[in-house]
């Protein structure tokens, strides 16, 4: 018999036992549903982390800290450098100006920018209340979502980017109305005596208003200033204190992305720990892969359970159709074609189960994506990404599994003696 004829006959045979076929297909569909969703979650998670890393980091930039010294038992000797940053909070010594100079001299290093993050007192403007503010350094490589205004290239030293929350708090009528206006940032000089406190007001012009983004690493409430402006504030606040010019982190810019790993190795040899954009992405993706493997395990368990259901369904089908099998053989159907018939029936069951399960998973994912994005405040980012190729592979894989499950019943059917089979009632 032709393959096409066997396929049609297998479909007709399954239609004669619709309820049993549907229940068996649904059993394998549970596995298809779980596997399809887990693949979509893994693809969406990796896509999301790729966007986060590309939006927040530069492939030519490394984050560098000093490699922690081996922990010593018992009392440790006091040093001004180590004491400048609380060891109760951090497990590493700070980077000093000497360290910055050492890193700057390495081959393929373009620049070294310490992490300033000045701790200012408050932000305000004429006629408005004072608000606590956190400043971060603006970087052109970080993708910002603007509610109003925008910045091309570097930010000017006297410019600032506010968030929508601060625009409202500072009494602006709208995000657009804030562009071009000024705000005052007040900072205290930490080295000034308590009896004669000293502070200074720094005026900035608003060049942009950033809105919340699901891709932002930085704190959503951080206000952004240029690196040189952050250094100016840092110098004013910390000059003369014990922690001045001691940094926990520095950003190292290299000549090109392919030099990042060689610079990382050179830094390690000098006693520094460096992390590239690839390291950050790899660590996040490892976590996602572990979660995906767990979900795939549940899906595989459901498929394994359904395999026994297919075997049972096919064996019952062979017993019920013993006379029919004998008649087909008596009319000239070969053992090979009889075996193929039952294998094709198993393949149909796998196809139906895979199509139903994968289809429901796609529908559920497309419906759920907006709710998931809204719940996690991700904007238009989807955490469930369905790849048609992956969905197809799942269905084909389940067809092959079903065919494998149908081999034993198919062999039993092909070995039936036609005369004995015709005598069966």
Our measurement of the CA-to-CA distance between the termini, rounded to an integer number of angstroms, reads 27 Å
Helix content: 40-55%
**SS content category:** alpha+beta
- How would the global form be characterised? elongated
Strand/helix succession? HHEHHEEEEEHHEEEHEHEHHHHHH
Q: What does the largest sheet look like?
A: 5 strands, mixed
Q: Mind explaining what this structure looks like?
A:
There is one protein chain. The chain is an alpha+beta fold and 425 residues long. The protein has 3 domains: 3-54 and 282-423, no CATH class; 60-114 and 249-275, no CATH class; 116-246, no CATH class. Helices cover 52% and strands 14% of the residues. The protein has 14 helices and 11 strands. It has helices at 3-15, 18-56, 80-83, 97-104, 164-169, 175-178, 227-238, 260-269, 277-320, 322-330, 335-375, 388-405, 407-414, 418-423; strands at residues 61-66, 109-114, 122-124, 135-137, 146-149, 159-163, 182-188, 199-210, 223-225, 250-254, 272-275. The strands form 3 sheets. Strands 3, 5, 6, 7 and 8 form a 5-stranded mixed sheet that branches. The longest helix has 44 residues, at 277-320. The chain is elongated.
Defining traits:
425 residues, alpha+beta, 3 domains, 11 strands, 52% helix, 14% strand, elongated
């Amino acid at each position: 018999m032709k393959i096409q004829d066997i396929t049609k006959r297998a479909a007709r045979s399954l239609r004669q036992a619709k309820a049993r076929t549907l229940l068996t297909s649904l059993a394998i569909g549970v596995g298809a549903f779980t596997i399809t969703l887990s693949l979509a979650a893994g693809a969406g998670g990796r896509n999301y982390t790729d966007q986060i890393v590309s939006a927040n980091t530069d492939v030519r930039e490394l984050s560098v800290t000093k490699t922690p010294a081996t922990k010593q038992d018992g009392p440790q000797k006091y040093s001004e450098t180590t004491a400048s940053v609380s060891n109760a909070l951090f497990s590493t010594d700070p980077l000093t100006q000497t360290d910055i100079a050492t890193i700057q001299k390495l081959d393929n290093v373009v620049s070294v920018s310490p992490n300033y993050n000045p701790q200012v007192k408050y932000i305000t403007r004429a006629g408005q209340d004072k608000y606590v503010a956190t400043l971060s350094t603006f970087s052109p490589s970080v993708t910002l979502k603007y509610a109003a205004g925008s910045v091309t290239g570097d930010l000017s030293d006297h410019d600032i980017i506010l968030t929508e929350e601060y625009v409202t708090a500072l009494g602006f009528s709208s995000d657009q109305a804030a562009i071009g206006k000024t705000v005052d940032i007040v900072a205290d000089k930490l080295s000034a005596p308590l009896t004669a406190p000293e502070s200074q007001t720094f005026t900035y012009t608003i060049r942009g208003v950033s809105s919340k983004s699901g891709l932002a690493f930085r704190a959503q409430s951080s206000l952004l200033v240029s690196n040189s402006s952050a250094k100016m504030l840092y110098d004013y606040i910390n000059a003369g204190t014990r922690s001045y010019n001691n940094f926990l982190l520095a950003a190292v810019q290299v000549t090109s992305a392919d030099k990042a790993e060689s610079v990382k190795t050179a830094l390690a040899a000098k006693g520094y720990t460096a992390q590239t954009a690839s390291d950050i992405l790899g660590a996040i993706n490892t976590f996602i892969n572990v979660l995906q493997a767990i979900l795939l395990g549940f899906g595989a368990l459901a498929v394994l359970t359904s395999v026994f259901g297919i075997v049972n369904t096919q064996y019952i089908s062979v017993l019920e159709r013993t006379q029919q099998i004998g008649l087909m053989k008596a009319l000239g159907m070969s053992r090979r074609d009889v075996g193929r018939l039952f294998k094709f029936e198993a393949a149909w069951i796998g196809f139906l189960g895979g199509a139903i399960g994968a289809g429901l998973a796609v529908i559920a994912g497309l419906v759920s994506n907006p709710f998931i994005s809204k719940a996690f405040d991700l904007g238009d980012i989807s955490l469930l990404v369905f790849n048609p190729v992956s969905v197809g592979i799942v269905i084909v894989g389940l067809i092959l599994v079903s065919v494998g499950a149908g081999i034993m019943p198919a062999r039993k059917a092909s070995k039936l003696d036609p005369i004995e089979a015709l005598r069966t009632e």
